[in-house]
Amino acid sequence: MATSATSYRQVILGLHVHSVLQGPFENGHRGRRHNRGEGDEDAHEDTTRSIIRQSASRISTPLPGSTGGSTLFGLVVMPPEEGRKDMRLALRIALLLSCVASPVTAAPAVYHFTVLNDGPSLDYLFQETTGPLVNYGSLGNAFNGTYNGTPLRGVATPGSDLGVSFDGTDDWIESLGSAPAQFSGNPTMSIETIVRIPTGATSLMWAPFLHWGTASPQTGRSAWFGLQNNTANQFFVGFYNSGLRTAPVPLGAWHHVVWVRNGSPNHSQQGSTLYVDGVAVPLSPDTDLLGALTPDVTSTTFRINRGHDLTRSFQGTMDELALFDFALTPVQVAAHYAASGLSAQVVPGLFNTGVDDAGQLLNNGAVDPHYTLVQSSDPSFPGPNALVPLSTDGFWYGLTVGSRWIAPAADESFAGAPAHPGGPYTYRLLIDLSGFDPLSAHISGSWGADNGGQIKLNGQPTTNLCNSASSLTSFDLTSGFGPGVNTIDFVVTNDAGGGANPTGLRVDGIAGTAGPALVGVVPTGATALALAAPAPNPASSSARLGYTLVHAGRVRLSIRNVAGRTVRNLLDRDAPAGPGLATWDGTTDRATIAPPGVYFVVLECEGQTVSRRLVWLR
To answer: Where are the domains of the chain?
Structure first.
């Protein structure tokens, strides 16, 4: 989002975000929690639900100069004196929901507000195309950054945001100011970033997302948050010569990564929690380094993608980076991840028929670069090329700006079409879900076929049928995806006929989302678990919760809030191997209605656990 530092702050002040959105953190310093009793939360539930319903019905555009309240992403934000207390919880939730419901691949504007509201010292958006890297955090412009090398700035994302790409060789950023005292010694702190490391990327020698501290004497004197030694698919948190690393992380998708560090133990391998996409992941000592030591970080400038001692760099794109001088709570981390929108990233490689890589319509006679004719009942037109016909059957659905028909031949008019035999003609689209969670994938669109057809996903028939070429029929793929490359086959059935017998396929409005692949929570023991994405999500009346057991075992399925407390136990019984299904209607174990917000669906079996996020609207 290309906004200047001045105008960005004006937007924040104009919308009363800092005063209205503080919620349970209002009486603390820069985001430290103010403890509110459970009874107080319950007392606000009815008001919360009412305000969210009212806010949803009061969508409007900002009114410059209006004194009746500002609008933020379509939600009415009243001035602080007008019922501020009752609106805080509702507005925080509503803002998160406005993001979660929209598929993006990088942070939307609501994420910036959510992070800034918790009071970071550094808050870099990487939105500038020229000039310095602007710090929106409390340390101010004295900690703006200088771009070095040849980073690709202003990288556009579908989330209407901008980021910076590093080539893995000579691109790096350095702050103007040196780290203040609270980040020296054995600091308590939190660092978070939104980053994408592409498949096949390179990384050199513990390349840092953020680093500071002296290079000599080295051991324990500098802090490191980034990637592990020469490994692009493992995160590292710690200090020079001692730290912790994750299991391999799926590449190719955007990830929200947060290092929360409690400096009270004088131990480099204790007090650290790393969250990847809202989930605390397992950490193990980095055996490429020394064992435990006492951190004693010194004050230097902050560096991104470079050490103070050596060239240490990674190949990838950063969209956000924030540093806090306190430990974020699990509730805050969950709120930041929910605001990031990364739980529904755009699936790459989805194209309508008859378009190029930029989505522009192809010319007559062109070969479709995305769909392949892998099966043809006409030996004269065996494929694999699928062509945009020069002319089409007059009964076919007409031309639109987003797609064109494709067919075995360049002329599929009623008079000039070849005498295609009856039978199947299969057009294949390949999509790569590497780095994504296939259980969360969802692809939809509409299609037409002459004379009709069925969609197959990875060779398996689906219930998505089409019986017309004169209109388009919607399709919806919600299950059957696997890791890596998936095949979507549009099997067109051509009826037998004499003389000219046109056949073809039209796919329009195809789009899809998927969450990032889970890190450190996929079980590897004797009882494997799979928990499907809740449907629908967000939900307001009920949510379907599907799961699969490879082996029989004792199963517990529960709904938990962001604090980890169980809201509802749905299952606790022995279950056979195979698929299962449960439904949550929004009620708690106390037979009350759960308040709107972010929840976790947790599936447990034989000591192993998987979880999914669920947004509840009612």
So the answer is: 7-101, 102-345, 367-514, 529-616
What's the whole-number average pLDDT of the chain? 78
Can you give the length of the chain in residues? Answer: 618
d(CA 260, CA 280): 10
Phi, psi of 488 (to 5 degrees): -110, 110
For tokens 């439904």, name the residue: 583
**CA 580 – CA 574 distance, rounded (Å):** 12
CB 129 within 8 A of CB 154: yes
Q: How many CA atoms lie within 13 Å of 275's alpha carbon, on the beta-carbon side? A: 24
Q: Are 109 and 121 in contact (CB under 8 A)?
A: no
pTM for this model (two decimals): 0.60
Q: Which helix (H) or strand (E) holds 222?
A: strand 222-227
Strands 222-227 and 235-239: antiparallel
What pLDDT, on a 0 to 100 scale, did the predictor assign at position 107?
61
- What is the C-alpha to C-alpha distance for residues 261 and 266, in angstroms, rounded to an integer? 12
Answer yes or no: same fold for 102-345 and 367-514.
yes
- Phi and psi at residue 561, to the nearest 5°: -85, 180
Type of residue found at 80: P
Q: 602 is written with which tokens?
A: 């947790």
Give the pairing of strands 161-167 and 152-157. antiparallel
CA distances from 432 to 169, 282, 435, 527 (A): 27, 27, 9, 27
Predicted local distance difference test score (pLDDT) of residue 393? 65
Strand order in the sheet with 452-457: 385-387, 367-375, 423-432, 485-494, 452-457, 460-466
Classify residue 575 by burial, with Cβ atoms within 10 Å: 0-12, 13-18, 19+: middle
Please tell me the distance from the alpha carbon of residue 76 to that of residue 237, in angstroms, as a whole number. Answer: 40
Q: How many helices (H) and strands (E) does the chain have?
A: 7, 37
pLDDT digits (tens, 9 = 90+) for 238-252: 898 889 998 888 788
* CATH 2.60.120 for domain 367-514: yes
Q: Which amino acid is at 394?
A: G
Round to whole Å and give the CA distance between 533 and 422: 40
How far apart, in whole angstroms, are the C-alpha atoms of residue 407 and residue 449? 10
CATH fold label, 529-616: Immunoglobulin-like (2.60.40)
* CA distance linking residue 89 with residue 24, whole number of Å: 8
Model pLDDT for residues 494-551, shown as the tens digit of each residue:
998 878 899 999 999 999 988 877 654 443 333 456 777 787 878 888 888 888 776 7
Residue burial 158-195, b: 16+ Cβ < 10 Å; e: rest: ebebbbbbbbbeebbbbbebebeeebbebbbbbbbbbb
Residue that is written with structure tokens 């947060």 in the block: 258
Instruction: Tell me which fold the domain 102-345 belongs to.
Output: Jelly Rolls (2.60.120)
Res. 270 pLDDT band, cuts 50 70 90: confident
**Nearest partner of 277 among 160, 192, 207, judged by Cα:** 192
The answer, yes or no, to whether residue 438 has pLDDT greater than 50, is: yes
Q: How far apart are CA 618 and CA 615, in angstroms?
A: 10
For 5, the enclosing helix (H) or strand (E) is helix 5-14
Q: What is the pLDDT of residues 92-111, one digit of tens each?
A: 444 444 444 444 445 667 88
